[in-house]
Amino acid sequence: MSAVGNLLRLCGADEFCSAVEQLALLVASLAHDVGHSGLNNDYYVKKKHALAIRYNDQAVLESMHSSLAFELILKEKNNFLVDWDEEAFAEFRKTAIAAILATDMKVHFDLTTQMQDLRSTPEVDTSCPDTKILVHKCLVHAADISNPVLPTSMYEAWAQRVATEFYRQSQREKSEGLPTAPFMDSSPRRPGRVCCPSAGFHELRGGAVVERHGGYVAAAGAPKKAASCQRRVL
């Protein structure tokens, strides 16, 4: 959540995103993993789990997270949207759902390509709904995998947690006769193994996507902040 807040401010997206959109992005970042069981989409699909069947094998967890988030928000004791008009509620809901669905790693390269194309556009219309939705998606996606740009001690602690989660899933898959991804099937307790088995991914994609997406957003919507954004994202 703090990463999204920083990206909004440092990249200049707060200059063209409405207050409702900014709140939706902060809530999306807070709720994007609500109800997560420590298993990934691939597991649910291979298992033919009820969630995978319900969501047609597409963004299984992200669809569940966004649905559960609004179930919780709309409970009477939680509903801070109760007095909003229909237009504001629709804007909030659309923005939050799109941002949460964009945390599915299957859309990573597509988002990056779209942002590169946007940056190469001579004049970007930041009032265009499609442009704003793309920016929303990229901000939350970049924040979601921003662990590599945290201080080393924090990065290593979270990488260890991810490695443990991956390993536990691989062991569960083996016990259930399911195929296992090689990068997940390595004990995080192995000597010298401080970072997660996907460290290469996180270093090359995680850190890079924060820098690139942040820079692209700034260059597209607030050029004066482009350089500083790439230096001071988190």
General description of the model:
It holds the Pfam family PDEase_I. This is PDEase domain-containing protein. InterPro entries: HD/PDEase_dom, PDEase, PDEase_catalytic_dom, PDEase_catalytic_dom_sf, PDEase_CS. By secondary structure, this protein is mainly alpha-helical. It is globular and about 50 Å long. The termini are close together.
Observed structural traits:
mainly alpha; 234 residues; Catalytic domain of cyclic nucleotide phosphodiesterase 4b2b; disordered C terminus
Provide a compact summary of the structure.
With 234 residues, the chain is mainly α.
Give the SSE string. Answer: HHHHHHHHHHH
The major pleated sheet works out as: none
First-residue to last-residue Cα separation: 11 Å
User: Mean pLDDT across all residues, rounded?
Assistant: 85
Q: Unreliable segments (pLDDT under 50, ≥5 consecutive)?
A: 194-207, 226-234
Number of helices: 11
Write the layout of secondary structure elements.
Layout: H1 2-10, H2 19-31, H3 41-47, H4 50-54, H5 60-73, H6 86-101, H7 108-119, H8 129-144, H9 152-175, H10 199-221, H11 226-231
